[in-house]
């Protein structure tokens, strides 16, 4: 791998992390949902955008910058898992099930929709 590859992933990762932090701050300050809404939002949006990016068939440079870098740090699997465990520990069974169904099912669905839309614009 070249220095340029690391730079693309690093710049994308930095911007994705800043965007994720901003989204978390916005949701935590402006919304009171029963489910962990910031993580739900970034993961669902990130699934759609990654599907769109792949469906469009972007170049390796854009895939590294936006897919691996930006969306890799914008979305979060570890926080999703931790928040799911917290819902389970708090005995919020319905919220736990709903959160997992929306994150997994919605993420797969929106990745597919994004992919199909991306193919239309390829």
TrEMBL record:
Checking Pfam families in the record gives:
CRCB (PF02537)
TM region(s), chain numbering:
35-54, 61-80, 96-115
Q: Where is the protein situated, by its record's location annotation?
A: Cell membrane
Keywords associated with the record: Cell membrane, Ion channel, Ion transport, Membrane, Metal-binding, Sodium, Transmembrane, Transmembrane helix, Transport
Quote the record's binding site residues for Na(+). 72, 75
The topology of this chain with respect to the membrane is:
Multi-pass membrane protein
- Where would you say this protein principally sits, based on its record? membrane
Q: How is its activity regulated?
A: Na(+) is not transported, but it plays an essential structural role and its presence is essential for fluoride channel function.
Q: Does the keyword RNA-binding apply?
A: no
- The answer on whether this UniProt entry bears the keyword Transmembrane helix reads yes
Q: Which reaction does it catalyse?
A: fluoride(in) = fluoride(out)
What function does the entry list? Answer: Fluoride-specific ion channel. Important for reducing fluoride concentration in the cell, thus reducing its toxicity.
Regarding protein family, the annotation reads: Belongs to the fluoride channel Fluc/FEX (TC 1.A.43) family.
Protein name, entry field: Fluoride-specific ion channel FluC
Source organism of this protein record: Rossellomorea oryzaecorticis
Write the lineage as a comma-separated list. Bacteria, Bacillati, Bacillota, Bacilli, Bacillales
Q: What gene makes this protein?
A: crcB
């Amino acid at each position: 791998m070249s220095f340029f590859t690391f730079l693309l992933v690093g710049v994308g990762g930095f911007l994705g992390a800043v965007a994720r932090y901003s989204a978390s701050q916005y949701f935590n300050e402006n919304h009171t949902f029963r489910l962990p809404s910031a993580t739900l939002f970034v993961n669902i949006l990130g699934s759609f955008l990654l599907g769109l990016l792949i469906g469009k068939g972007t170049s390796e440079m854009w895939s590294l910058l936006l897919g691996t870098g930006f969306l890799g740090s914008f979305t979060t699997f570890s926080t999703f898992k931790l928040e799911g465990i917290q819902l389970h520990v708090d005995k919020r069974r319905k919220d736990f099930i709903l959160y997992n169904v929306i994150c997994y099912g919605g993420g797969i669905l929106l990745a597919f929709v994004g992919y199909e839309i991306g193919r239309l614009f390829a």
